[in-house]
Amino acid sequence: MKSSITIAAAGLLLAPALLNACWRYKPLYAGYGLYDVKAGSALCYGLEYLQTSPPTSIERVWLLHGNCGQDRNHFQRYTIGQPGSWTQRANLPYSDASENVDWGGALAWGPDPYPTDSGRIFAFTGNNTDLFWLYSPPANQWYSRPSVPENVGAGGALCYGDTQEIDEVECAVFYALVGGSSEGFYRYSYPMQSASNGTWDPLADLYNDQQVKAGGALAWLPRTDSADEYPMGQVFALAGFDDLPNYLYSYNPSTDAWRIEHDFGYDLAVDSGAAMSPGGGGYDLRIFLGGHTKAYLVWDPSGGTTKLTLSQPTPCQQNAGAALCEGEADHSCYAVFGESTRDTFALHNGLDSDEDGAQGEVCAGPENISVKVHAGPGEERFIISCAPGPVALRIVNAVGAVVAKTSAQIGSVGAELTWRYGSARAGVYFYTIVTGTGPVSGKLVVAR
Description:
The protein has 448 residues and is mostly beta strands. The protein is built from no helices and 33 strands.
């Protein structure tokens, strides 16, 4: 016999949809707990090419630790796979404490066809320095590159932007915000078939000379859906703390012009720990808003009136040092969550499903758990198939705040939990149902 649990909670929920994805914790590098992820930490995704015959490549996630007193400028790579593994690599160079990675630390990966494919990683030290570095994965070595035109501080950000023809020479391009309360925006480029160190060029300052502070972020998308308007792709930016209302900005390299792309409003504030990454395939953005929230957003620039969606909230609050990147092959978002979360590393395993009645995925444990959601008069019922034992329901809003929860002891197989509507605001909510062997998560839409 199924147990029935009723929650008096806010919100008339319509159009229920389950989410076939959840956050998973990943295996940690041995001794990794010594290296907390603090301000200035950065992640990037990239391929490491192996000089085999024929040449092969391995998907990697690269992590640079900020403000790390145990092992300054600690740098390591994660090999994507099951179960995945960490390997320590050469630390980013420093000469004294003034060159420790701190606020404004950043990473970006790009291809490297000279002299052979190997991929390159570029990095900011941040910490109000102008230091700019190149990392060679095959050599496991860092090299100094031309200084950034301004010192990089809180909100400094770096992203790869494909190739462009500059002065009739094909160049790999990176975009940069220097942060530190500066509106400065720059392009770093190097010839594709040359050993040149590359050059920095100033571009149009951020929209309306908006200063970039903690929470600044950058990402580039190819925009293959609108080649006439964005033949060189589109750059997206967050300005971080004190930018109210909170905007998502975009930059068109072909016109050297900024615009406001989206107004998050005052409910979704951008602050320290904000981060962005192109989604797998490069057609949408994955966004952290930081500021101790758990908001995980997806922006589809070609999505018409439904460009912004809210995905499963992160398992930890996003603090200074939070970072994310998305893998090309599996569309998984890899993330660290910054200060106060120590060594937490997790992934969001795949794309969201908006199909009503889909089965939620088991995130832990061997037991097969299924959930169906049915709308009743003024209520939403969660019908759960699971083994006997405790079961709990929690519902959170878009920034991870709990709006309703309950628990019960199930004496026989299955349970039915009901969330009754009240006066909740319209928007997206998420539920998590936890049994003794694992959670199942899903998404619900409050409509008015």
